[in-house]
Structure formats: structure tokens, C-alpha cells
Amino acid sequence: MKRLLSLLLLVLWLSLPTPAQALVHAHNDENGTPVVRSLESLRDLDYQSWQVVAYREGPPGGPLKLRIVGYPGKVRLDHPTSLQVHSGHFRWELADVTLANPQLAGDGRAAAAEFDLAPLLADLHQDRPLRLVLPGVFVELPVPPFVVAEWRSLPLAAAQPPGAFDNPT
């Protein structure tokens, strides 16, 4: 009986989900421009999956963007639509910059939106959980603190060879 209980506890322990970790990746785009990004798949309160990519192109201190991508054919995002961000009593409204990106502006699937992330990161001094609201698309997309920590590291992250950030400490 004791052995069976030990075996059952071991199986339960091994089946527990491991904590998710966002990863910062560095690479060069097709033009050779360094890109540093954090990529994570998150679920909204309706249990729909969204790919959330925070990135910076160019040298440290360059512009920061947040791209939200839904499943093509399942969602169409209208532009411009500001992204609302909440954390406790703090509120931000991030400008929709999707149409400034020729690649996204010409994509007929309209399943992605891009926002200026700099105003949010300028105000954040902690890795606090965030709630994203995209009117007409999703009511709330929770962003955990470990993802916020990755976003906060992007402004000054050095462009490293691919995989340099894959083992966070």
C-alpha cells in the first residue's frame, strides 16, 4: 500500500505543469537588422490563444513594439484600435501602429495588431501582472509577471547570437 501511494504521488508530481517561461531571443531580420524579442502564447478569459510578441529592432534604446496575433480566419482586427492595459489602479492606452508596418498593413488576413510599447515600459518599475483589453476582440488577456520582466529587459538588451537568452537565470 505504501509503495502504491508513493508511486501515485510520484506520477502526480511528474504530471504537474512546469512554470512557463518567456524567452528573449536575439537574431537578425532579413535585412541584417538586429532584433530582440520576447515571444509567448497566452490565453484570454474566453480561453482563446494569442501569440504575444514584444520586440525591438535595431540597437538598444530603439523603438519597442507589442504584436498580438490571433488565429487567421478566426479573428479580424480593425485598425486603428488602441490597446488598453490595466494593472491595479494603473491604466495605459497603447497606440495602434499596425498600419505603419508595411508587412502587416498588406496582410489581408488582418489577424495581427501592433502597438507602441514604450509608454507602458516607461511607467513600469516592477514586474507586475497586466491585463490587456482589445475592444471588440477580447475582454481580458492576462499577462503574468515573468512575461512583463522579459518586456522590461528589451529596451537595453544587447543583440546576442541566437539562443543567448534561452537559459534565463
Our count of helices gives 4
Tally of distinct domains: 1
CATH architecture: Sandwich
Q: Strand order across the biggest sheet?
A: 1-2-3-4-7
- Report the span from N to C terminus: 40 Å
> How does the overall form come out from the CA principal axes?
globular
Structural class: alpha+beta
Average predicted confidence as pLDDT: 82
Question: In what range is the share of β-strand residues?
Answer: 25-35%
Sheet of most strands: 5 strands, antiparallel
| Proportion of residues in helical segments | 10-25%
Say what the CATH topology is: Immunoglobulin-like
Compute the number of strand runs.
9
* CATH class type: Mainly Beta
CA radius of gyration? 18 Å
Order of helices and strands: HEEEEEEHEHEEH
Low-confidence runs of at least 5 consecutive residues: 8-13, 15-22, 161-169
Describe the overall structure:
The chain is of the alpha+beta class and 169 residues long. It has one domain: Immunoglobulin-like, CATH 2.60.40. It has four helices and nine strands; from the N terminus they run αββββββαβαββα. Strands 1-2-3-4-7 form a five-stranded antiparallel beta sheet. Strands 6-5-8-9 form a four-stranded antiparallel beta sheet. It is globular, with a radius of gyration of 18 Å. The C terminus is likely disordered.
Q: Summarize this, please?
A:
This protein is α+β, with helices and mostly antiparallel strands and 169 residues long. The chain has helices at 2-15, 102-105, 118-123, 145-153, and strands spanning 23-28, 34-43, 49-57, 64-69, 83-87, 90-94, 112-116, 130-134, 138-143.
